[in-house]
Amino acid sequence: MISNYLGRETWLHRMPAGAKLAALAILSVVILPVDDWRALVAALAGVVLLYASLGKEAFKRLAMIRSFAVLLAIIAALHLLAGTWQEAVAAVARLVMMILLADLVSMTTTMQAMMAALTPVLTLLRPFGLNPRKLSLAVSLAIRFIPVLSANWEARSEAWRARTGRRPSFRLLGPFIADTFRIADHVAEALDARGVARSRRGGREWG
Amino acid sequence: MPDTVSPYLRFDNVSLGRGARTVFDGFSASLGERRVGLIGNNGSGKSTLLRLAAGLLLPDAGEVFVEGLETKTHRGELPGNVGFLFQNPDHQILFPTVGEEIAFGLTEKGMTDAEANAAARELLAANGCEGWEKRAVHELSEGQRQLVCLLSVIAPEPSVLLLDEPFSSLDLPTRLDLSDRLRALPQAVVMASHDFEFLSAFDRLLWLDDGRVREDGRPATVIAAYEASIRGLKTARRA
């Protein structure tokens, strides 16, 4: 299963997961009201420097932003239509920065550390009858699956291009969703085999 | 059928349907040998039998006992007693790094993260994979990933290992390396495979055909019968 985790340890790997998640949350909130495009571009440059500080392999990961190209272009176009180019630059820079920062955290944090950081926070939900460890596993798995799903979409698009010579179409959506369910089934079975969620009785269809 | 003293795995009149298809209808078998192989065509029920033994599937009728534990009533206790190795390592591996993948089964057993990580480190070192704990799983080769899966499964020290065609996607050198490791395991092993060379050293083979035991006994006899039947079918088709 593909993941975006960086195998070679960097200084950011050694930072506690809780600090990284808190910093990500705080930065996201701080960035939101800023609308000066120069400040945002400068901050984005700072994030790029952060990538550079993690070595060549991390720096190459910046290219992943290309998969957001269409979305970013649409956002820029909407801003250009409704407002000024400064607003368009600011909106795109803000979004790119948030994506890159989130990716930095998942690139340098193990799932175990993520779960350990989330569990105390999620313990607050215990009065509602929720198991914090299972919940933190679920949240971490959801984050963990973003690269898996995007790799799966890429693979399908590639197959489509190889056989049609055309750009991927919405018709890929059906098989992509079916595939996603299949992956979810495998994960459920893997968790089951390792003893997670064995409290309930009864089996699950495996296919 | 060879005599089995104190079986670790017992199927008692088990029936199971998957969708519209009936896989097993009143299947009974009792396994007590250290090394048991399952052979048969794809779709003959090998994987399903292993999944029943791991409690991943529960019988519609009848009972399955693992180390005396009935799988429907003792589902929660099974993962501590049986380890299940999937055919495709990517279907098992959940975590991005090797260390946490191996530690996961241990924390599920009640260890703290720190204890589990230390145990994972030790297990890796003992298996010639010193310092692997921080490596990203997706950067490993297919064979290395399968090895990580095996170590994750044996880490909680189950007494029975269920292996679902663990060699199917491996190249020859990795297959031989994994075979050596499997041979050395102290656990009882039930393994579905098409690797007759490896299975020939087993204590007992079951040939499954359409959810029934077609032949049961020493590997040489069972393999010969299976191969003869396949060849017979081919000749019959050609004639």
Automatic annotation (TrEMBL), chain A:
Localization in the cell: Membrane
Quote the CDD domains the UniProt record gives: EcfT
Q: Where are the transmembrane segments?
A: 12-31, 37-54, 63-82, 88-106
Q: Which UniProt keywords apply?
A: Membrane, Transmembrane, Transmembrane helix
User: Per the annotation, which location comes first and is thus the protein's main one?
Assistant: membrane
How this chain sits in the membrane, per its record, is:
Multi-pass membrane protein
Which Pfam families does the protein's record reference? Answer: CbiQ
Q: Which PANTHER family match?
A: PROTEIN ABCI12, CHLOROPLASTIC
Instruction: Please report which protein family the annotation says this sequence is part of.
Output: Belongs to the CbiQ family.
Q: What is this protein called?
A: Energy-coupling factor transporter transmembrane component T family protein
TrEMBL record, chain B:
Annotated GO molecular function terms are: ATP binding
- ABC transporter domain sequence ranges: 9-235
Tell me which UniProt keywords the record has, alphabetically. Answer: ATP-binding, Nucleotide-binding, Transport
Q: Which family does it belong to?
A: Belongs to the ABC transporter superfamily.
Species this protein is from: Flaviflagellibacter deserti
Query: What SMART domains does its record include?
Result: AAA
Q: Looking at the keywords, is Metal-binding present? A: no
Record protein name field: Energy-coupling factor ABC transporter ATP-binding protein
